Amino acid sequence: MTMTQEQATWFSDIFNRLVANVDQVLLGKTFVVRLSFTALLSDGHLLLEDFPGTGKTSLARAMAQSVKGSTNRIQFTPDLLPGDITGVSIYDQGSGDFEFHRGPIFANIVLADEINRASPKTQAALLEVMEENQVTVDGVTHAVGAPFMVIATQNPIEQAGTYRLPEAQLDRFIMKTSIGYPDHASTVRILEGAGVRAHDTVVPSIASDEVIVEMAKLARTVHVDASINDYVSRLVEATRSTPEVRLGASVRGALALIRTAKTLAAANGRHYVIPDDVKALAEPVLAHRLVLDPEAEFDGVTASSIVSQLLIETPPPSDRQAV
């Protein structure tokens, strides 16, 4: 079944209302909010590499409030253990059985703050839940429910005492972006509300979690022309043949680009994907999956600049089949 135009209009209306709702909290960052909801409705996870105090926690909380969901914040530190995230089984002397106590990962939106400060073993505790929406403790599998999204943060300026995320885990994040500092006008508006603490700000719910799950299912039915699949394939293959890149984007990266392009098309009120959807998402979806050659990094080459150049060099399809 392919999404109809009426369904696309319904999807776009709710999507834009969700974005406008969070915009009340994260002033002047509409693009980042749209990316965040695109990741959520694509059943993906978001990696934010940003400076402290830019509103990462406020973003996660406002998104959860908008979808009538729960949110938890996990502060990653070197002494954090996998059980501190997933939960543990505790022996109950009264019943004589082990009882599972859920960890903070059991929420609709989980903020993994400074994820690279925890040990690789603790980071690996997120691999299963980010891929399969479940955790396994003592051989027993526990579903985390839906919708489910991890918003992880990294501080780009303090690398002492951190553990770089391995490529396998970076690949689990459907997008990587940053919030950045607000512009002057937005900063003035923030200062005008300085008497209200960020934690006291509550935004109304726009859609239930059931509606969000339905929207995610509907986004998968957006039509993708064969020429768009060919375009994405050529882009991803080009990342692997670029001299400055030691490891290019995987097939998972190509699938992520298609999935997010479908969601963005629906968010824009279309039931089909166009090349501009792919272009808008190529950098946040693909750049963090590239491993650059050390000499290229030393010369100042960035993954984002490589993706931008590939978008220029890779011609988009000029037409598509009628739908």
Describe it for me?
There is one protein chain. The protein is built from 14 helices and 11 strands. The relative contact order is 0.16. It is 45% helix and 15% strand. α1 packs across α2 (30-41) and α11 crosses α12 (275-286). The protein has a 5-stranded parallel sheet. It folds into 2 domains: 1-221, P-loop containing nucleotide triphosphate hydrolases (Rossmann fold); 222-318, Helicase, Ruva Protein, domain 3 (Orthogonal Bundle). The longest helix is centred in the first third of the chain and has 19 residues, at 5-23. The model has no long low-confidence stretch (mean pLDDT 89). It has 323 residues and is an alpha/beta fold.
**Number of helix segments?**
14
Gross geometry = globular
CATH architecture of the largest domain: 3-Layer(aba) Sandwich
Low-pLDDT runs of 5+ residues are none
Percent strand equals 5-15%
Q: Give the N-terminus to C-terminus distance in angstroms.
A: 12 Å
- What is the radius of gyration computed over CA atoms, rounded to a whole number of angstroms? 20 Å
Q: H/E order of the elements?
A: HHEHEHEEEHHEEEHEHHHEHHEHH
**How many independent structural domains?**
2
Q: Mean pLDDT score, rounded?
A: 89
Q: Within the CATH hierarchy, at the fold level, what is the topology of the largest domain?
A: Rossmann fold
Biggest sheet overview: 5 strands, parallel
Strand tally: 11
Strand line-up in the sheet with most strands: 2-5-8-1-9
CATH 4th-level superfamily of the largest domain: P-loop containing nucleotide triphosphate hydrolases
Structural class designation: alpha/beta
The CATH first-level class of the largest domain comes to Alpha Beta
Helical coverage, percent range: 40-55%
